[in-house]
Amino acid sequence: MAVYNVPSGVSNILVDIEGTTTPITFVKDVLFPFIKDNIKKYLIEHWKENEFQEDVAQLRKQAEKDSHLHGFVPIPSHVSENDTEKVIQAVVENVQWQMSSDRKTTALKQLQGHMWRSAYATGQIKGEVYKDVVPAVQQWKNLGMKLYIYSSGSVEAQKLLFGYSIEGDLLKLFDGHFDTTVGHKVESESYKNIADRVGCPSENILFLTDVVREAHAAKKAGLHVALVVRPGNEALTDEDKSNFHLVTSFDQIHFPSQQ
Predict the structure, then answer these.
(1) Torsion angle of alpha carbons 97, 98, 100, 103, nearest 10°?
(2) pTM score of the predicted model
(3) Residue-wise pLDDT tens digits, 235-250
(4) Where is the binding site for substrate, in residues?
(5) Which residues are annotated as a binding site?
(6) Where is this gene product found (predicted)?
């Protein structure tokens, strides 16, 4: 694929994670299975902690909102010590249902983030990044670019992935993080919100993603967009290929000072 020469005026770069900086397989084959395999053990070990009880409270509120959905799992209130086992099992089943339905609720992401934090800190998990990412990002930083992450995963989960990566602590390379609390990634308003937050016009931002619907939303909001084509990512149609610049590696992205 040809080099993508970024238009002059771009001073901020917004990047997706899954399928863009990090293999999709890392999320599907490492992060998610860790939750499913360890959820009950984690609940039992952390049950009495205030942070965990807040996680349960948020999951319970989400369950009340989901009561109209097929297969939803309610989470009963914890009244006495005798209820603990019943509530724990309900939380396990609720989390498994949300994950099997590919839900991306804030409550679920919050619990997952706390579980991953423990796993990263103990070395059970290390964040994966493509080999071309760090050299390119370091070069962009040297050019004076500001870099931000925007992912459906929580900000905490993002910081864990890059803070405990196979390349070491990469957090110093990024100027900020955004998750779905700023809006869903397929809605153009979310990208306008991000532009407001970073304090620059939409046309001064380049968004890198592998998801076509996100690309369209960002483009509608006035951002420049490049689709990142990585192994295992969803196949693109001819129309997709004609609508967006395509790159298979970050080193194909060149800024005016590099051209």
Answers:
(1) 160
(2) 0.82
(3) 999 999 999 999 999 9
(4) 151-152, 185
(5) 16, 18, 151-152, 185, 210
(6) Cytoplasm; Nucleus
